[in-house]
Amino acid sequence: MQLSHIYIDNATMQLIKDPSQFDVLLCSNLFGDILSDECAMITGSMGMLPSASLNEAGFGLFEPAGGSAPDIAGQNIANPVAQILSLSLLLRYSLNADEAADSIERAISRALEQGYRTKDLAGDGPSGQHR
After folding, report:
1. Which residues of 32-61 are buried (b: 16+ CB within 10 A; e: fewer)?
2. What's the predicted TM-score (pTM) here?
3. What is the pLDDT, as a whole number, of residue 1?
4. Is the N or the C terminus of the chain less surrounded, counting Cβ atoms within 10 Å?
5. What 8-state DSSP symbol labels residue 97?
C-alpha cells in the first residue's frame, strides 16, 4: 500500500481530475465530510456512497454518507445502494467477512450493469421502473 499526504485543496482538485487514483481517503471529520459529498456527486448521487467511521480496532458506525433521507420516506424514490454498501463495509471491516462483502458488491455492480436505476440516477418516474 502506498501512502501519500496531500493538502485538502489539492485533494478536492485531484478527486475531480482523476478519482481512480484514490482507494482510501483518510481525513479529519470536517474534511471527510466535504470530500464525501464531492465523492458522492462524482458517483452521480449521494445515494451511492457508503460511509464508515472506524476506531483502531475496526469497529464503528456504518451508514449512507447522505444520511437517512427522511424527507423522501414512503415516496418510492430512495436509492438503497449506499445503505447496502454500508453493510458491505461492516462485514468487511468489523466482522472480517470479506467473502460476504464481495458478494454484496458484485450484486450491486450487476444490477447497475443491467441498467437498474433509482430516480436520483435515472430521472423522472418511480423507483423500480427504470431499466
Report:
1. beebbeebbeeeebbbbbbbbeeeeeeebe
2. 0.74
3. 76
4. N
5. -
pLDDT at 127 over 80: no
The DSSP result for 8-73, as a single string, is: HHHHHHHHHH-GGG-S-----HHHHHHHHHHHHHHHT-GGG-EEEEE-TTS-EEEEETT---GGGT
87, with CB counted inside 10 A (0-12, 13-18, 19+), is middle
User: Residue 130 has what DSSP assignment?
Assistant: B
Instruction: Give the model confidence (pLDDT) of 12-68 as tens digits.
Output: 999 999 999 998 888 888 898 888 888 878 877 888 889 888 888 878 999 998 777
Residue 30 burial by CB count (10 A; 0-12/13-18/19+): exposed, middle or buried?
A: exposed
Q: Across-strand partners of 130?
A: 117
Domain coordinates in residue numbering, the chain: 1-43, 46-130
> What nine digits make up the cell of 3?
501512502
Please give the DSSP secondary-structure letter assigned to residue 85: H
Euclidean distance between the first and the last CA atom of the chain, given in angstroms as a whole number: 38
